[in-house]
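Q: Please design a sequence for this.
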């Protein structure tokens, strides 16, 4: 690999780390090409990207990002790929965890979100959290419920008041 290509790769990794809301280091040793392709497609759907990196080039790119450097540098041994989460970090963690259940060769080494390092246990916990869309739906239901209850109470009150008035109107007068 030429020096210019190495510099381009370092710059690309650094730019992606700067754009990403979170990142994960995964070991994909032992995975078949079809499995890696399937994982890339699933990650693309979750608005993320997986890039296979050379450890020495990745370590150089980490120097531009000190928090990432401390979180990732010790795990950069063996065959590694960095998964960049550009939108929702929880969704990417779920995708990786679910894929890791199906394909045991995929190992999640470490991650980073909002400047905080995540170990394997934290990533697994993150994967159990509801996604952004599910949280929005739960929040909207929470906001809607008091007004729905008020409407039901007023409806019951209106039907009770209307029933006696109808009875007196229908009753024959003597």
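A: Design:
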């Amino acid at each position: 690999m030429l020096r210019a290509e190495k510099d381009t790769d370092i710059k690309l990794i650094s730019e992606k780390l700067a754009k990403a809301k979170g990142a994960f280091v995964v070991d994909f040793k032992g995975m078949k090409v079809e499995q890696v392709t399937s994982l890339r497609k699933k990650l693309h759907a979750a608005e993320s990207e997986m890039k296979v990196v050379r450890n020495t080039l990745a370590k150089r790119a980490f120097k531009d990002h000190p928090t990432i450097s401390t979180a990732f540098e010790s795990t950069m041994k063996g065959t590694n790929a960095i998964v960049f989460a550009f939108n929702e970090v929880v969704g990417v963690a779920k995708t990786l965890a679910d894929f890791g259940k199906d394909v045991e060769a995929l190992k999640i080494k470490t991650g980073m979100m909002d400047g905080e390092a995540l170990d394997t246990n934290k990533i697994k916990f993150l994967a159990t959290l509801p996604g952004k869309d599910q949280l929005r739906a739960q929040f909207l239901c929470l906001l809607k419920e008091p007004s729905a209850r008020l409407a039901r109470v007023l409806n019951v009150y209106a039907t009770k008041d209307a029933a006696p008035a109808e009875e007196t109107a229908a009753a024959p007068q003597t």
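Q: Thanks. Anything notable?
A: The mean pLDDT is 86. The CA atoms of residues 29 and 127 lie 22 Å apart.
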